[in-house]
Design brief:
38% helix, five-stranded mixed sheet, Nucleotidyltransferase, domain 5, alpha/beta, 253 residues
């Protein structure tokens, strides 16, 4: 079984692959204070009963967690083939930006998975702590994209800074015209962020030309996808698939 680990700023997603099939996945909170031993206890509880791990692929956007992940892997999986997405790892994704080293590894992983599944050119919309739009060329190159504040942190900032506003559940309101504060916030968040994505996609397509797909992923994607007119596909496991592909690319022939 291949264990794939995607460490994001808010959540960490784990997936188990048997060959090309994703057999199980979990989403847990990311805590930069978690130690290697605590990580292992969590993983052991989740993985119990799912068979032996014979490979691990990892990407992380949180340096503190990546450090503890390295310690955990060295301590508890010393003989297991492991691929950590970082400089020197074969991804097959040319990065055509001003400074390739500053591009998040999750964006590269998503680019590979999107091109593998949908060819190109295409756009990945990753709804996480930030909303990332990643642009993939017809040759599978990472061209760049757009970054915007994520839905949850935007609502949290609004609740913190506005005395009469508060955090609300992210569900569809009765109408776009909110009849109370909760529904007004839900309308602004849901329809506002869907409109933001559609506007950005329109501008990117105007520069890039027609695209094969606009692919949504990330924990908050199911909330926005039904309200977007430009998103064509929802792939919740896109990053895990990309990690599997990178692991395979880095194994001896």
């Amino acid at each position: 079984m291949l264990l794939t680990i995607d460490v994001g700023n808010t959540n960490t997603v784990l997936g188990l692959f048997a060959g090309q099939d994703l057999t199980a996945s979990w989403r847990i909170k990311t805590d930069a204070r978690t130690t290697a031993d605590e990580l292992m206890l969590t993983f052991r509880g989740l993985l119990e009963g799912h068979g032996a791990i014979d490979g691990i692929a990892l990407c992380s956007t949180v340096p503190a967690v990546l450090r503890e992940m390295r310690v955990m892997l060295d301590r508890y999986y010393p003989t297991t083939p492991t691929v950590i997405v970082e400089p020197g790892i074969k991804t097959g994704v040319p990065i055509l930006t001003d400074n390739p080293k500053e591009v998040g590894t999750d964006r590269i992983v998503n680019t590979l998975a999107a091109f593998h599944g949908f060819s190109g050119p295409c756009i990945v919309v990753d709804f996480g702590t930030s909303t990332n739009l990643d642009v993939v060329s017809a040759k599978g190159e990472f061209l760049g994209g757009a970054l915007a504040p994520g839905i949850e942190i935007s609502l949290e900032a609004l609740a913190d800074r506005a005395a009469q506003l508060r955090k609300v559940e992210l569900v569809e309101p009765r109408s776009a015209i909110g009849k109370n504060t909760v529904e007004a916030l839900q309308s602004g968040a849901l329809y506002g962020f869907a409109g933001q994505v559609d506007g950005l996609v329109d501008r990117i397509v105007a520069e890039l030309g027609a695209v094969t797909a606009v692919i949504a992923t990330g924990g908050l994607a199911p909330i926005v996808v039904p309200e977007s007119r430009t998103i064509t596909n929802h792939e919740p496991d896109l990053t895990l698939v990309g990690l599997r592909l990178i692991f395979e690319r880095n194994q001896p022939n």
